[in-house]
Design a protein that fits this description.
This protein has helices at about 5-25, 30-50, 60-75, 85-95, 110-115, 120-125, 135-150, 155-180, 185-190, 190-200, 205-220, 225-235, 265-270, 275-285, 295-300, 305-325, 330-340, 365-370, 375-385, 395-410, 440-445, 470-475, 485-495, 515-525, 545-560, 590-600, 615-620, 620-645, 650-665, 670-675; strands spanning about 430-435, 455-460, 480, 500-505, 510, 530-540, 570, 605-610. By secondary structure, it is of the alpha/beta class. An 8-stranded mixed β-sheet has the order 3-2-1-4-7-6-8-5, with helices on both faces. Helix 28 packs antiparallel against helix 29 (about 650-665).
Amino acid sequence: MNTRGGFGLLCLGWLAAMTALAVNGPVGERVWLGGPLYGVAFLLLILLVRYFPDDIFGRQGLVIGVAIGVAGRLVFIGFEPGNDINRYVWEGYIQLKGFNPYLFAPDHDALKPLAGGPMNGIWQAVNHKSFAACYPPGALLLFRAMAGIAPTLFFFKWFMLACDVAVLVILALFLKARALAPGRLLLYAANPLVIVYIAGEGHLDVLQVLGVSLALLCFARQKEGWGFLFMGLAIMSKYFAVIGLPFLVTRRNWKKSWIVLLPFGFFGVFGADGAAVFTSLATFGGTLHYNDGLTALLRFFFPEQYLAVALVLLAGYLGGVFLLIHERTHGLYLAFGGLLLCLPTLHPWYLVLVAPLLLVYPSRAWLYLMAAVVFTFPVLAVERQTGVFQEIHWLKWFEYLPFLGLLLYGCLYDGLLMRPYTFTSPQSVVVVIPVLNEAAQIERCLVGLKNRTGVTQIIVVDGGSTDDTRRIARQAGARVLQGPTGRGRQIKYGIDRAGGDVVLILHADCALKNGTFKRMLQALVRQPHSPGGAFGMCFENTDFRNRVIAALNNGRARLTGIAFGDQAQFVRRQALTPIGGFPDLLLMEDVELSLRLNAIGRPLFLPRHVQASSRRWAGNGFGGNVWLVLRLCTCYLLQRRVRGDDIRRVDTYYRAYYSKHLDRSGGDGGRHAMSRGPESGRKM
């Protein structure tokens, strides 16, 4: 099907479905036909993306994507505009007459002469007439300018359609700047939700998407100042975009981040009215709800405090994303998604906010939710027939349960429709073991590696042992190298001198169970997009506290893709180039490797294969050890979040970790700690 002929047939089928959907009429009109057509159009979208011809690439592919998107939008020119446009036109028009829409709600007595004039039809269709404007000042000033040209529904709608076409072109340039496949453009260009609610109904959310898309393009081209300016404009068109701002600031661009505030000058036009700018926004957000998922559940348990609880959950979620996700676009995507799930009102067109980011992170879960808004169509059908707008709550089960299932699957495995890298099937494995004074452990570790599937070489990298570690390792058949001091640097030294399709990093106090390598190779063959991964671990001492630590270790690796060294991390040789090689760090090399792997693909997690020594926990104080590990890892992640991957003073973590352990057990402090570093990983 990835031939041009098959793809052409899919395009015709998709365009026919979209044309039929447009002809069917407004959302809620003949739901028995419009609903299936919407679903079929989404199914064809997925097929278009999956079977975009391999021989169409570069500018040609992007032009085809834009052309498909424009064609799909043109068939919606005659589609009935959405109800919200009436408010856009009204609020733009009354500004021309000298009224402030933040102070004068549509039903205000002072506006009765305008409501009874040529704008009567617009005024009659405005919803929530007792509420003043809630849109940001940038949007209102744009409405004013547009009303000065033509205060009509179709002019406003066509303007939004033109902005949407501009987004197509900008996203095409963004894909080119990111060197991503042109077929990804269809996830926005041919997205039925985007077309129906932007090209069809004309919602202003496209203004926000336009600003965000321009910002993404500028950041991709290293135009940081312009990126912040367009992000500010996005925020001034709809406040949702502000949630992504912290994820765009880095050490290299923070001095230019103030530029985001320039568009906030629009507040000055209405600034004399102070809090009135946000009065209706607070009313809408605090009293209304529709099509929500999380807050609907919270209302059941916390009827009065559900919004406060939702805000706390959102803040905690955003904090976790900020700490763990260091790639800007990924952070922006997760932040926008988290915000949408915590909103008490989730109109279908709100989902347009995440649509441009699906080009980089094509989530099956979010694509499903965009398709599943079809379950909101019956609500609109009832409203059209009876004039009563009321949720049909049981329909939300079909909308949110599969979505949450796909979201959970994406957290545990790989929830993306496509990945930027595809790797060849591996055949051989090289095991790299950093050691220093491990005479008591190394033989047990090496004996367990003999005659394992795919293992072609075992490399032991010594950091200056003064015991019999090197002799024992040679007798066990390993290749022994004299490397630099520091566990991470020893590992890098070994990897740079090794071959093999896959490199597995093993600590000397860890043992692998039978079948480990066979299962790893099979998993990498089944998951060609995954760059590497880690194993589930347990301790040789299985008391309750060690089981808790092991469970936390495994849960963290499974959910976040961040593994520690005692989980036997592995990485494809092919993946080392796009991640910039193995990190050259004294400590935290395991966390850094995990972060780099996460940036190019979802790492695998294979449970129940590593048995680690519990010696680190035997006499150093359980609670203190837990606190030390959490503190050092959090500090490292925060430092990396601020500085990017340019981490220089990682030796401070190395000294703090090992000196703390050995000081507690009667060691001689920092000097001895530095010589004992590679003996084991952080057991948490």
